[in-house]
TrEMBL record:
<protein>
    <recommendedName>
        <fullName>Transposase</fullName>
    </recommendedName>
</protein>
<feature type="coiled-coil region">
    <location>
        <begin position="66"/>
        <end position="93"/>
    </location>
</feature>
<dbReference type="GO" id="GO:0003677">
    <property type="term" value="F:DNA binding"/>
</dbReference>
<keyword id="KW-0175">Coiled coil</keyword>
<dbReference type="GO" id="GO:0006313">
    <property type="term" value="P:DNA transposition"/>
</dbReference>
<dbReference type="InterPro" id="IPR036388">
    <property type="entry name" value="WH-like_DNA-bd_sf"/>
</dbReference>
<dbReference type="InterPro" id="IPR009057">
    <property type="entry name" value="Homeodomain-like_sf"/>
</dbReference>
<dbReference type="GO" id="GO:0004803">
    <property type="term" value="F:transposase activity"/>
</dbReference>
Amino acid sequence: MDSMPKQYTPEVKSRAVSYVMDRMDRYKSVYAACAEMAPKLNVGKESLRRWVLQAQVDAGERTGPSSEELAEIKALKSKVKDLEEANEILKASAIFFARELDPRRH
């Protein structure tokens, strides 16, 4: 089995989620719905379940961070990492120049 996850287009995800959401009343859980419908849609049942859960969050039907909030969190984590790296460089520079300028060294 291929270990690389499949990449689905936003259109495929959207249509699959709509298909499941339109039929949710026939199932006792999102898991049950996705387990039965995923093979018919030719997508992984766990991928489908995650998409449906996120769609429910985005629609306000379920608690959790929205797709927009998740994207913002990801961007902020990246920014924090960049700032921490820059801070380390600045600290090292400050220590270097403090040593260079120390009158006791000369």
